[in-house]
Design brief:
Keywords: Transferase
Protein name: GNAT family N-acetyltransferase
CATH superfamily of one domain: Gcn5-related N-acetyltransferase (GNAT)
CATH architecture of one domain: 3-Layer(aba) Sandwich
Pfam families: Acetyltransf_1
Radius of gyration: 15 Å
InterPro entries: Acyl_CoA_acyltransferase, GNAT_dom, MshD_Acetyltransferase
Strand order of the largest sheet: 1-2-3-4-5-7-6
Helix content: 25-40%
Order of helices and strands: EHHHEEEHEHEE
Largest sheet: 7 strands, mixed
Strand content: 25-35%
GO molecular function: acyltransferase activity, transferring groups other than amino-acyl groups
């Protein structure tokens, strides 16, 4: 398994596929089935270029875990200006970390997280994230990597809101 930076628009198709598969598995019973099933594993062709350019222009790191030229997981960690109010200037926001469900428990998430933490600027003293409440897989992963729950908030999806938990890890 190779962990490397996102380096092409082609990577985004694999990232999108992993995201959709992980969402369907991790959020089953948390989000409505209609929300989970409406997302296609195929990224619309025009979306890749815009997403790639947007991601490459933001301060942070976007890593992919690749096995035999297939993306099995990814992580997006951002610092500097973050869209979440609970992330301060001297902190990084873990925006996304997803692993293809068939590969859960094989250490891919740990490898992605370890590599991302190694790439943090010196002025960053903590990493924060928000996850949907009730996501036991994510909770177990984060707590096993020394993240602690420090608050809660809500996530808007369409016309609905869902409770979330905010976690923090000092680095």
């Amino acid at each position: 398994m190779d962990v490397r930076p996102l380096d092409s628009r082609r990577d985004l198709q694999g990232v999108h596929r992993v995201n959709v598969l992980a969402w369907r598995e991790a959020y089953d019973g948390i989000l409505p089935e209609s929300v989970l099933e409406e997302r296609s594993v195929d990224l619309p062709p025009g979306d890749a270029a815009a997403q790639y350019d947007r991601l490459r222009s933001q301060p942070g790191c976007f890593l992919v875990a690749v096995d035999d030229d297939v993306i099995r997981g990814y992580l997006f960690l951002r610092w500097g200006h973050d869209s979440k109010q609970f992330v301060d200037e001297d902190e990084a926001g873990l925006k996304e970390i997803y692993v293809e469900p068939d590969y859960w428990g094989e250490g891919i998430g740990t490898r992605l997280l370890d590599r991302a933490l190694d790439e943090l600027p010196d002025y960053i003293d903590a990493v924060k994230l928000e996850m949907l409440a009730g996501n036991d897989v994510a909770q177990s992963f984060y707590e096993s990597h020394d993240f602690e729950q420090v608050g809660s908030t809500e996530f808007e999806l369409g016309d609905d809101t869902y409770p979330t938990d905010v976690y923090e890890k000092h680095v």
